[in-house]
Structures are given as C-alpha cells and as structure tokens.
Design brief:
Helix content: 40-55%
Mean pLDDT: 72
Number of helices: 30
Radius of gyration: 37 Å
Protein name: C2H2-type domain-containing protein
Organism: Steinernema hermaphroditum
Distance between the termini: 43 Å
GO molecular function: DNA-binding transcription factor activity, RNA polymerase II-specific; RNA polymerase II transcription regulatory region sequence-specific DNA binding; zinc ion binding
InterPro entries: Znf_C2H2_type (IPR013087)
Number of strands: 16
Strand order of the largest sheet: 4-3-7
Largest sheet: 3 strands, antiparallel
Keywords: Metal-binding, Repeat, Zinc, Zinc-finger
Length: about 700
C-alpha cells in the first residue's frame, strides 16, 4: 500500500517546526538490487573480510538514509525554497507510487540480495571443492620403473638416452607425471643414501657411523649427531664463550670441560647453579646454529658406512636374567630401571608442588607429558636438581648393577668377526644408483643404451655384481617411492594413506598398518578361527566381532578372561603371518598418495588450556594423563607381587621398563585385568575430561576447510 504523504507546511501553520523528518522517495528496487549486488560481489571477489564488512555497513546506512531523510528546520513558509529544489527530486502524482516504495517492496529487495549472496557463496564452495579434487588427484600418483628411470636421466639432461629409451608421447607423459608427484624430488643419489642408511640401521645395531665432510673431505666417526655438529662449528667458526665471568675465551664445546678444570679449577660436574644453567643454554645455542648448516657439510649422501667396532660391547655381553628374581630383562635401559626397583630408588620431581616420584628416565617423561617442559626449558634451580638426581642415580646403579646382571661367558671376539663379515656383504654396502640403472637396462637387454652410458670396464664390473647378488637388488623405483612418501608425510598431517594392492590392483585406504594386513590375509588365505568351542568357523579379523554377536549372542565387551586371552592370541598370530608378506602386496612403490579426509575426531576442538590449573597441554593423549593427575587416578600393576601404583595411562610403559613385558606376553588374568583398567579409565575420562578441557568457543574455518 502507498505510504501517506507528509503534511504540507501551509496546513500545519505554527506547528510545522516540530516535523523534522519526512519520507523521501526511493529508487527503483531493481536498480537498487543491481547496485548493491555489484558492490557486494566486487568486495567478495577479493576475499577480503574487512572490505566485505565495510560494504555491508555502507549498504545498511544507505537503506536507512533513503527510507528516512532528515530535513532542515522549517523557519517559515517561502516559495524560494521550493523553487530552488531540484526538479528531478520533486514528486508528481504520476510517478509518486514508483518512487515511494512500500515496506513489502523493500523487504523483497533485501531478500533478493540475500539470495544472490547465498548463490555466490554456493559457487565459491563449489570452486573450493573442485580445487581440492584437483589437488587430491595430483597427490594420488603411483610411480613406475619407467618414470623413475626417466627422472634419473632427465635430471642429468641426457636427452640422447631418453630418445633411445622412450618415444615422444611417452616422454611428454612422464614429464607431466613428474610435475604431479606432489613434492620436490631431489637427486637420486640423495634419496638412495637416505634410504640406504635407514635400511642398514635396522640390521646393524650399536655401531658408529662414518660420514665424509663435503668441505674438507675428512671422515668423521660419530655415535651421535653432536659429533657432526661440532665439526661443522670448525668450518663455520662457531665457538662458545667460557661461562666464567671476565674470562672471554672462546672454544668448541668439547674443550669446555678441560678449560674449566685447568684455568678456573672448577669441575665440570660440580658447577654452581648459575654457571650450570648458563652452560646448558650456551651449548643449546651452539648446536642450534650448527644444525642449520647440516645439509651443507653432511647431506645424506655424505654417509659412507657403519664402523665394524660397536659403540658399547659390555652391555651386549650382560646376562639378561636377573640374579635376584630370575626375570629376563633384554632391553639395556630397562635393566637399570629394574635394578632401581630392587634398590627402591625413587626421586621426587624437581618441579615445585609436584609429588611424583620415580627414576630419572620416568621423571624426564613425566616432565614432558604432565608439565609440557623439555630439559632445555627448565629453570636454573630445576635443571640443577635434575642433574643431581641423575648423578646420584648413575653412581648408585654403577656400584650395584653387576650384583643383579653379570657378564656371560660368550666370546666377544667371535661376535665381532661375525658382525664384520655380515657388514661386508655386497647386498648391504655396494649397491649404488648406477648399479640399479644398469640392472634395469640389463634386464631389458638394451645393450645400445648401456654402451652409451657406461664404459666397457664398468659394464663388466656391474655384470659380475649382478650375477653375484642374483635378483636381490634395490630398484631405483623403490628409492623414489620411499622418498616421496616420507616427504609428503612432512606436509600432510593426519592424512589417510592410499595404497594399491599389487595383486588385485584394489585401492586401500589405510589409517594404520593393520588395514593393509587385513587385506593381505584375504590373498594369503590367513583367517582367524572362532574362539567359541565347537564352532571352528574361519573368517577375517574384521568379521570376528560381528560373528560373535550375531551367531553366538556374545558381545565383545562381555568376554571372560579365557575367551579374551584366546581372541588376542588368534589376532596376534594372524597379524604376525600376514606381516611377512607386506612387501609382496604393498611395497613402497604401491603407495599412491593421501586422501583429503583427515584422521582425528573431536579432540582437535578441545581447548588446550586446563580450566583448573591454567596449564597448556597441546597433545591429545597428554590431556588424559593431566586429568588423571588432577583426579588422583591410580591403579595397581597387573603383575602379581608388584605393589607399584601408577597412572592408568602409563601401565604399558611400566610393564615394559620394570617387568620387560609386552602386552602379548601377559597371562590371561593379567590381560583381563589390563582390559578392565582401560575400560574404567575411558569411562572416567568420558565423564570428566571436558570439565578440565572444554570445547573451544570459537573454531577457525581451517578446521572445516576439508569438508566444504
């Protein structure tokens, strides 16, 4: 309906001055819609949130200004004011209805603007989905042997070899594939060296590494990374100042101990609190500067081999059986914790107001998990207390250790010779990328390409090595695939891996290794038998839970101790057999990429700040431990005769360090008790966790970016 026109000044007379507002004519709603839509889309196109808010405010202000306009105060009636008025703004009866829109028309205009805004947002979301799909498809790439060989010669710019091996279409296809790999692929030598060192470390234990400096060509034997960093400091002229005031001498960290003793008559292990704190910060600064130059002097390809001499032979000659209680403790560090348990050594946590007591190794883990502090973040007093704890522990254990674990009568010389012969194997040390390329071409009988790449002497040498080693040779394809997966995992956090089975070519999405092993069981015929007596049906592990519920009306949570123990044994046997066939069905080159869907549930939306004490706990699992500390949740160890009371989150760590037992080695009673402790702990956490770590009030759009 039409709005009533404002009364004229003639009819109002003296009361005309009280009317300071009147309804002003509005523009055509269609033109308004076009103007507002253009302004809004111009701001939205730049994806600038601030600009978008400013446009919204201006738009609302214009709507108010056009609907209600303030007039100047009316002093008197005069024809001069009406004559000076713009004729375009004078309303006439003919266009009066068109210029003065109704509230319903204004509402329709705003509704159209909102619908246009929603349509634009829907288009933006569709663009995001299309972009993510392109990224997902680019990540999902399976390398082939031909692509790996193409990249090897492509980085060396050997166009003559590429022309001989591939036609033009294949070369262009491989060039596109190289761009879709998803990460920057370094030289084959660097990737191979990185892969080779990791593989050798799996078989060679407690041996010193030998590296070759790229600047001075010296060979450096090292048992830890600090040795290489100190050598880097000599080239970069990084020195540490003496911690004693007014000394001014600068030196490498390895000479600091002797300097303090000779020039300042101070023992390195008995410094004052301030000097000890200053020394730890100085060493941390030195190693941090040297670490930035690691790839310049000691890149992965600078690794040569492992030394024949082991780092510490005495620990390997210790009898793992405790003379006091007869328990087998096979891990070297666990033996020290075992001796501390016999001697009842227990130290208080060095953080104020914390009553936790244990050995130094457990205290170090406790400070990291509960207090979220590393050793380098401790204060001067806390660092000194921790150092005193370690010194006292090492001295006591050193005096009493061999009363519990004695040396065996084995011959250490024979062991060293056997280890040396094993490391001299050509399969371990003499495989190079050039040999892998030679094998690739030799297998395909490309004699013309071999003659173009290698001279006659090298060809004979490589041919003899291939005959000696047989077919067991590290392929260049596996090296590329292995490196690519490692590099992608650094940038894609919490992603679901996609693998392609080499037999059935089915794509498997795996959050853990067990997802791949379950698929391997279908090919190898490995099945789990039903644990109910008299049934004997075989099935996959994923179907076992449903079988017990549907056929035997036996819920998984209601199994007794014998049934639960038998179930664990059955699953363990299945996974152990299937794991041996991992490289047959899912070798490194079977990795395709990462899925867009991320691993992680509602824990990522929890506020990391504790409501009770204000401490920041950023690790999800550490929050459960933190809440258990507040609630004083303690449980008794599941092993008979052990009266140790611990946090439920650390039961498995306690079994490993104190009793040298894995979960698979527990008896039926111990396993059932561990299951009960876990179930009770989870119920308490489900009820109490969000009283200490509630959900965040505001969640950034990054959390939902993958679901748009």
């Amino acid at each position: 309906m039409d709005l009533p026109s404002s009364p004229s000044n003639d009819s109002l007379g003296e009361d005309a001055s009280i009317y300071n507002y009147s309804f002003a004519p509005l523009r055509d709603p269609e033109l308004l819609l076009a103007d507002y839509a253009n302004e809004f889309f111009t701001a939205a196109k730049g994806k600038n949130a601030k600009k978008r808010e400013e446009v919204k405010k201006k738009r609302c202000a214009r709507l108010r200004a056009r609907s209600v306009v303030k007039k100047p105060d009316v002093v008197g009636v005069g024809d001069e004011e009406s004559s000076n008025e713009d004729p375009k703004q004078q309303s006439t009866p003919r266009n009066k209805r068109k210029q003065q829109s109704t509230p319903r028309e204004d509402a329709r205009t705003i509704t159209r603007i909102n619908k246009s805004k929603e349509a634009q947002e829907a288009n933006d979301r569709a663009d995001v989905r299309r972009k993510k799909k392109r990224v997902k498809d680019s990540r999902k790439v399976q390398l082939s042997s031909d692509q790996a060989v193409f990249y090897y010669f492509h980085e060396r710019k050997r166009s003559d070899v590429l022309d001989a091996l591939f036609n033009e279409d294949t070369r262009q296809e491989h060039v596109n594939k190289v761009k879709e790999v998803g990460c920057e692929m370094p030289s084959i030598m660097r990737m191979y060296a990185h892969w080779r060192r990791i593989e050798l470390k799996k078989t060679i234990k407690d041996a010193m590494e030998i590296w070759k400096c790229q600047a001075c060509k010296k060979e450096q034997k090292t048992s830890e990374q600090k040795d290489l960093l100190e050598h880097i400091g000599t080239h970069e002229r990084i020195c540490s100042p003496c911690v004693v005031e007014h000394c001014g001498r600068r030196m490498k960290p390895r000479y600091m101990r002797e300097h303090l003793k000779r020039f300042h008559a101070r023992q390195y292990d008995h410094l004052e609190k301030e000097l000890d704190y200053k020394l730890s910060r100085m060493l941390e600064s030195f190693y941090e500067k040297a670490r930035t130059q690691r790839n310049k002097y000691f890149p992965p390809e600078a690794f040569l081999r492992f030394d024949d001499k082991k780092i510490d032979n005495t620990q390997n000659l210790e009898d793992p059986k405790c003379r006091e209680c007869g328990q087998m403790v096979r891990v070297n560090t666990a033996r020290r914790a075992h001796v501390a348990q016999h001697l009842k050594l227990s130290y208080k946590c060095m953080i104020d107001d914390c009553e936790f007591r244990s050995n130094p190794m457990a205290i170090n883990r406790h400070v990291l998990q509960y207090h979220s502090k590393k050793v380098g973040q401790l204060t001067a007093g806390e660092l000194l207390d921790f150092k005193l704890i370690k010194d006292d522990f090492n001295k006591t254990i050193g005096d009493e250790f061999h009363k519990f674990f004695t040396c065996r009568n084995d011959n250490p010389v024979r062991k060293r010779v056997e280890a040396k012969d094993k490391r001299a194997s050509p399969n371990n040390l003499n495989i190079t990328p050039e040999l892998a390329i030679f094998y690739y071409l030799y297998e395909r009988k490309r004699q013309d390409v071999l003659e173009a790449i290698f001279d006659e002497e090298t060809r004979k040498k490589f041919a003899s090595k291939v005959e000696e080693m047989g077919i067991d040779i590290t392929s260049i394809l596996r090296t590329y695939a292995y490196w690519r997966r490692i590099e992608l995992k650094k940038t894609i956090k919490g992603g679901i891996e996609i693998w392609k089975c080499q037999l059935c070519e089915k794509e498997i999405k795996a959050t853990t290794v067990r997802d791949l092993i379950n698929h391997i069981g279908t090919h190898e015929g490995g099945s789990c038998s039903c644990i109910v007596a008299g049934c004997g049906k075989l099935m996959k592990p994923t179907s076992l839970r449903g079988h017990l519920k549907n056929i035997h009306a036996l819920h998984f949570d209601h199994l007794d101790k014998e049934q639960y123990h038998k179930l664990r044994r059955t699953l363990l046997s299945f996974y152990k057999k299937a794991r041996t066939q991992r490289n047959k069905y899912f070798p490194p080159e079977a990795f395709l990429g990462f899925d867009d869907k991320k691993i992680g549930g509602k824990t990522q939306f929890e506020d990391p700040k504790c409501r009770d004490c204000g401490q920041m706990v950023r690790v999800n699992t550490a929050r459960r431990y933190h809440v258990a500390q507040h609630l004083n949740l303690l449980c008794k160890c599941v092993v008979d005769g052990c009266e140790f009371r611990i946090n439920p989150r650390t039961v498995i760590a306690h079994l490993s360090t104190r009793h040298s037992k894995k979960v698979a080695q527990l008896t039926a009673e111990e396993l059932f008790e561990l299951r009960r402790i876990r179930a009770d702990f989870n119920k308490v956490m489900e009820r109490e966790l969000h009283k200490f770590f509630p959900y965040k009030e505001e969640i950034s759009e990054d959390h939902f970016g993958d679901f748009l």
